[in-house]
């Protein structure tokens, strides 16, 4: 079944929780990026079939935490529960949270970050930092396409 394409640079609010299983990498910021993100994503894609209770193996969730000096970046699948976590992986739940969301592609992520923070500022939304949540990049794998859809979610204070 073909997935509907996302409307590029559409900004909106969304609220939900996420249960995720995956791998992470920690590196210097910003010098370690995007190389570290690509490394953990490629390593995880090779192991994603080990996750038995995934919701969709073609959707990669990449939450991250950054303090401006170091960053930890994850590559995960969304799961129905955390009962079966493969060796060397981590499972966790990000509780229900309101996010500012923007749609983009893997080639327009930088511009999308600029646009979502501008939209948040115009609408007086403030980012929520490291309070039981973190920003998330969601990648939609597709075969034989030049650009894949991506969603960026920034937690906000409500």
Please state the average pLDDT score: 94
The topology string of helices and strands comes to: EHEEEHEE
- Rg calc: 15 Å
Largest sheet: 6 strands, antiparallel, barrel
Highest-level CATH class: Alpha Beta
The CATH topology label is Multidrug-efflux Transporter 1 Regulator Bmrr, Chain A
- Specify the CATH homologous superfamily: Regulatory factor, effector binding domain
Shape: globular
Helix count from the secondary structure assignment: 2
How many discrete domains? Answer: 1
Q: Decide which structural class fits the backbone.
A: alpha+beta
What is the number of beta strands? 6
* Intertermini distance: 36 Å
Residue fraction in strands:
35-45%
Helix proportion of residues, in percent? 10-25%
**Strand line-up of the largest beta sheet:** 1-3-2-5-6-4
Unreliable stretches (pLDDT < 50, length at least 5) are: none
Quickly give the CATH architecture. Alpha-Beta Barrel
């Amino acid at each position: 079944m073909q997935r509907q394409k996302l409307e590029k640079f559409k900004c909106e609010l969304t609220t939900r929780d996420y249960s995720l299983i995956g791998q992470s990498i920690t590196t210097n910021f910003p010098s370690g990026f995007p190389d570290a993100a690509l490394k953990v994503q490629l390593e995880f894609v090779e192991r994603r079939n080990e996750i038995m209770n995934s919701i969709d193996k073609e959707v990669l969730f990449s939450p991250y935490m950054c303090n401006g000096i170091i960053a930890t970046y994850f590559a995960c699948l969304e799961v129905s529960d955390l009962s079966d976590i493969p060796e060397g992986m981590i499972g966790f739940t990000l509780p229900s949270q309101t996010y500012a969301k923007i749609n983009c592609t893997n080639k327009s992520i930088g511009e999308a970050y600029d646009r979502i923070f501008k939209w948040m500022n115009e609408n007086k939304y403030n980012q929520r930092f490291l309070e039981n949540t973190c920003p998330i990049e969601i990648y939609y794998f597709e075969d034989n396409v030049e650009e894949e859809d991506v969603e960026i979610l920034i937690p906000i204070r409500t």
